[in-house]
Amino acid sequence: MKARKLALLLLPLAALCGCGQQRVLERLGFININSYDLLPDGQLKMVAFIPKITGEGDSQTGESSSGQTGNVQMSGQTSGEVLTTTAHSSKEARMIQSRQTNWELVSGQLRNTLFGISVAKQGLWPYVDTLIRDPTISPRLKLSIVDGEAGDMLNKNYPQHPGVGRYIDRLLEKEIQDQGIPRVLLYDFERDYFDDGLDPVMPILKDAGDNVEISGIALFRDDKYVARIDSKDGVLLHMLRGKTRNGEINIEAPDGGKGLSHAMLSSLASNRKFKVGKDAAGRISVRITLDVEASVLEYMGELKIGDDRQRAKLEALIAESLKDRAENLIDLMRKNRADGIGAGTAVRNHIGYAAWKNMNWREEWAGAKITVHVKMKINNFGKFR
Amino acid sequence: MNVFTFLFRTLRGRIAQPSGHPQSRTPAKRGSSDVLSMQHVLDEFRDCADLTHRSFPEIQVHLVYFSFLSDPDKLDRDVIRPLRGVTREEVPRLLRETQFQAVTDRKQLIEGILKGQTALFYRDEPYLVDVLGPKERSIGQSETETVITGPHDAFNENAGSNLSLIRKRVRSSHLKVVKLSVGEVAKNDVYVLYIDGIVNPIYVQKIIERVRQIEVDAITDTSMLIQYIDDSPLSIFPQFLTSERPDAIASKLVSGRVIGMMDGSPSAFSAPTSLFEFFTSSDDYYQRWLLGTGTRLLRFVAFGITVTFTALYVAVATYHYEMIPANLLPTFVESRSRVPFPPVYEALLMETTIELLREAGARLPTKIGQTIGIVGGIVIGQAAVQAGFTSNILIIAVASSAIASFVIPSYVMSASIRLVRFGLILLAGLWGNFGLAIGLAFVVIHLSGLTSLGASFISPLAPLQFKDWKDTFIRAPFKMLKERPEQTEALNPVRMKTRK
Questions:
Q1: Residue of B nearest to A109 (CA)
Q2: Cβ proximity of A179 and A235 under 8 Å
Q3: How far apart are CA A385 and CA A293, in angstroms?
Q4: Which of A22, A77, A138 sits opposite B318 (nearest CB)?
C-alpha cells in the first residue's frame, strides 16, 4: 500500500526528468567520422563530417515519398557538412562546432575516428580516453591512423564515393573481414593498451589521389606510434596475433634450387602457439608455432602441386618463406621495443605475476631468443590436378 | 484503494451476498400444495400474445403452449391427432402413453411451458408434452476460428446441438454434464462439462459455485458469463479460453479441464486456462509436428511484434538514434524529416486510424467491409505519407504490428494485447526504451499475478514445468506428449501408455 503510493509519487518525477533528453531524429546531425590532428602550436585540430541525409525543403524529396527512396539516399549522401575547428580539447571543439551548424550534433552514429600521425606520435590515450568515457559512442568505433593530416582526408571530396564517412568505413570493414588488417575497434585498442605484454596496432590510411588506400599497419609502444609495417604483411601480423580464418597471402619465396617463384595462399586458416622456455644462459626464449592450412589456387613455379611429393616440397618452401617474413616482422618490433604480437602475455602467464612485475619486458623482448616455426599444409589445390 | 474495492464489489455483485441464495432457486416443496388449475397458468401468462390456448371441449382437454417455441409437425403428430381420435372415455388411457408426463409441481409446469413444452390439462390435471422445435441456426463453419485442415463444424446457439457435438467426439459415460441456471429473469441454462476420473473435482466445484452465486437479471453469452466468474474481473486479459470449435473443446475436456456452455451462445469456455493456450490452434495438432511447432513459435514472435514494434519506433525516433543501423539511417531520417508531429503523436495517430479501420470493418457487412479495407489501405499507405502526416517507416511498423495482432488465434486475447500496445507507446514516448522496459515489466508482473480458477495463469512458466513446454511453446511429436498439463492437476495425469 505504502509502496504503491510512493511509486505513484515517483512516477511523474521520472516523467519530468525524461523530457530534457529527447533527441528527435530529424533535428540531429549525426557525426559519421571525425579526425584529430596536432597543430605545430600544440592546439588540436578537429574535423567532423556530417553526411547530409535530410531533404528538407528539397523539391526532389518532395516527389519521392514512395518508391524512390534509394535515389534520395544517394543524392542526399554525396554532400556532407564538414566542420573544422581548433581547440584545446575535443569536447571544446565539439562546442565550437555546434555553433557552426543548425543540427544538434550527436556522436551516437560515430563509426570511425582518424588520428593524424602527429597525434599518434604524441600518444593517443587522452583522446581514446574521452571516446571511451562518452556513453553514446559505440565501443565498436573503428580507429585508424592517417599518414599525413587526417583532417585533409575528410575535407576532400572523393567523387566516386558517396560520403567520405561511409567510404572509409566500408573500406576498413571489408579489409577486416578479409583479415588484411587487424580489427581495431575502440574496444580492442583499450584492451590491448591495458593488457600487460601486448601493444596495440592500428591500420594506416593514405590519401592516394582519387582514393583512400590502406598503406600499412602502425605499431605502438603503449599509446605512441613507433613504426609501421607494410600492408602486404597484414595477414602475417594477423596470424602472429592469434587465430586466422579465411586469410589470403602472397608468397614470394627465394629460389630453393627447384624454384618457387610465386604462390597465392587463399582460404588460409592458422593457429598460433607460444611456448615459453629458458635458454642455456637463463634468458627467456619464446618459440612461436604457426599451424597453417591453406589452399593454393595460383602457383607459378616449377613444382607440380598435383604430385604429393612435390607438393610436400612446396609446403616446406612456403613454410620457410613465411618463417623468414615472420622473423623479420618480429625483429622490427623488437628493435622498436613494441610487442605487437603479445608474446609478453605468454611469458607473463608462464613466469607468474611477481616475476613479471620485476621484469622489464620491453628490454627482455628486444634481447630474448624468439624462434618461429611454421607447419604448412596445402589442403586444396583447385579442381585441376 | 477504496475506490478499487468498491468497483470490485460492484462488478462482482455475487460476492456481496454470499450465503442463503442458492437454495432459493431449487424447487421448493410448496409447489405440490399449489393449485395447478389451468386458470392459474393462464393468469401467470396473461398479456403474453404468443401464448396459444387450444381447447377440445368434448373431451375436456385444454392445450397451453408457446406456438413459436414448438414444432408444429411434432405437436400435430404427438398431441393433436391422437386427441382428435379418442372419445372422452379413452382419454385417461391415452394419457398413460409415455410422451405425456404428469406434473405435480407448479414451478416445473411454468418452466416447461417457457422452455417450449406443451401443457395439457385434463380435468385440471396437468401434463407436459415435449414438442420442442424452436428455429435455430444450422451447424456451420466457425467464422472467428478457422482452420485449414481438420473439422470445420462449429457450435451454434442451441445448447442441445452443442452438447451433441461434444458427445459425438467424446463417447464416454465418464463425460458428465451438470445443468445450472443463471439469470434471475432470463433463466438461461448453463452446462458444466467434465470427464469424471480425469478432472480435478476442485475445479468443477469452483465453477459450479461461482455460477450459482451470480445474481443478475440476464446473461446472454458465454463471453459475458466468464466475466462474472473469472478471478480478476478488472484485468485487461481474459482468464478463460473461449472457443466455438467442438474439437478444441473436446481436447480441453480430455486434458482435464472443465468446460462451460450456455444455451444461446455459440461459444464454450474452458478452465483453468493458461496464457499460452490463447496462442494455440487446433491446426497445430492436425499438421505435422515441425510445422505445428513453427506456426506456434511464429505466433509468439507475432506477439512480440505487436506489443513492441510501434513503441520501439517511438523510442528510437525520440531518444535512441544510436540504435539505427548506418544503412537504415538515411531512409529513416528522410522519412521522418517531413513529419510535423513528434514521433509519439505520429504513432498514436496511425494506431488510432488502424483501430478505426478495424472496428469499421468488423461492424460492417462483409461486402462493405472490403471496401473499407481498400479505402483505408490507399489512404494510409499513400496519402498520409505523401501529405507528410506520417513517415513510411511508421506505416510499416503500424501495419506489421496490426497484422501480427491478427495472427493470435483468440480474438479476445488479440484485442487485449492491442490495448496494451497503446500504453507501451505512451511510455516509450515518455521515457524511450526505459519506459518500454518498465511497461513490459508491468505486463509481466500483472500476468504473473493472474490466476485462472486459482491456478497460475502463466502455468508452465511459473510454476516452472519444463515437461509441459513441449506442448506449449512448441508442439512436440505426439509420441512425446504423454502427460496431461500440470495446470489441470488431473487425477489421472497419464494420457498415453508407454510401450516397452
A1: B322
A2: yes
A3: 19
A4: A22
Q: What is the DSSP string of A263-284?
A: EEEEEEEEEEEEEEEE-TTS-E
Residue of B nearest to A26 (CA): B337
Q: B118-122 and B61-66: which strand pairing?
A: antiparallel
- CATH, domain range A243-385: 3.30.300.210
Q: Give the pairing of strands A28-30 and A142-146.
A: unpaired
| Contact flag A61-B334 (C-beta cutoff 8 Å) | yes
For B330, the closest of A66, A73, A108 (CB atoms) is A73
pTM of full prediction above 0.90: no
Closest partner residue to A55 (CB to CB) among B337, B342, B432 is B337
Sorted by where each begins, the domain ranges of chain B are 18-129, 159-273, 285-452
B-chain residue closest to A54, CA distance: B334
CB–CB contact B317 A25 (8 Å) = yes
Task: List the grid coordinates of B37.
Answer: 388449475
Nearest to A303 by CA among A343, A345, A258, A339: A258
Distance from CA of B334 to the nearest CA of A (A): 5
Query: pLDDT, tens digit, for every residue of B392-416?
Result: 899 999 999 999 999 999 999 999 9
Nearest CA-CA partner of B260 in B217, B213, B211, B199? B211
* Contact (CB<8Å) A53/B338: no
User: Quick check: A18 and B432 CB within 8 A?
Assistant: yes
Question: Each residue of B91-106: pLDDT tens digit?
Answer: 888 888 888 888 888 8
Residue B76's region, left for phi above 0, alpha for psi from -120 to 50, else beta, is alpha
In this structure, which amino acid lies at residue B424? L
User: pLDDT tens track of chain A, all 385 residues?
Assistant: 677 777 776 666 555 555 557 888 888 889 989 999 999 988 999 999 988 775 544 433 333 333 333 333 333 344 688 899 999 888 888 889 888 888 888 888 999 999 999 999 999 999 999 999 998 899 999 999 999 899 989 888 887 877 888 899 999 999 998 888 889 999 999 999 999 889 999 999 999 888 899 999 999 999 999 999 998 888 999 999 988 888 888 887 655 555 557 888 888 999 999 999 888 777 889 999 999 999 988 888 777 888 888 888 889 888 988 999 999 999 999 999 999 998 999 999 998 889 899 988 888 888 888 999 999 999 888 887 6
Half-sphere exposure of A33 (CA within 13 A, CB side): 26
Domain range summary for chain A, segments of one domain joined by +: 27-56+72-241, 243-385
3-state SS class at B220: coil
Residues of chain B positioned with their CB less than 8 A from the CB of A73: 330-331, 334
Residue in chain B closest to A24 (alpha carbons) equals B318
* Record: contact B333-A166, CB cut-off 8 A: no
Please report residues of B whose CB lies closer than 8 A to that of A21: 319
Q: CB–CB of B382 and A66 under 8 A? A: yes
Distance CA A53, CA B74 (A): 81
Chain B positions contacting chain A at CB under 8 Å are 1, 316-319, 321-322, 324, 326, 329-339, 342-343, 382, 385-386, 388, 392, 430-432, 434-435
Contacts A24 to B, Cβ<8 Å: 317-318, 342-343
Predicted ipTM of the assembly = 0.78
CB–CB of A24 and B317 under 8 A? Answer: yes
How far is CA B320 from each of CA B58, B76, B160, B393, rounded to the nearest angstrom?
92, 78, 59, 16
State the DSSP H helix or E strand holding residue A193, giving kind and residue range, or none if neither: helix A186-194
Characterize A122-148 residue by residue with b for buried, 16 or more Cβ atoms within 10 angstroms of its Cβ, and e for exposed.
bebeebbeebbeeeebbeebbbbbbbb
- Distance of alpha carbon B403 from alpha carbon A181, whole angstroms: 46
State how far the Cα of B328 lies from the Cα of B330, in Å rounded to an integer: 6
Query: Torsion over CA of B157, B159, B161 and B164, rounded to 10 degrees?
Result: 150
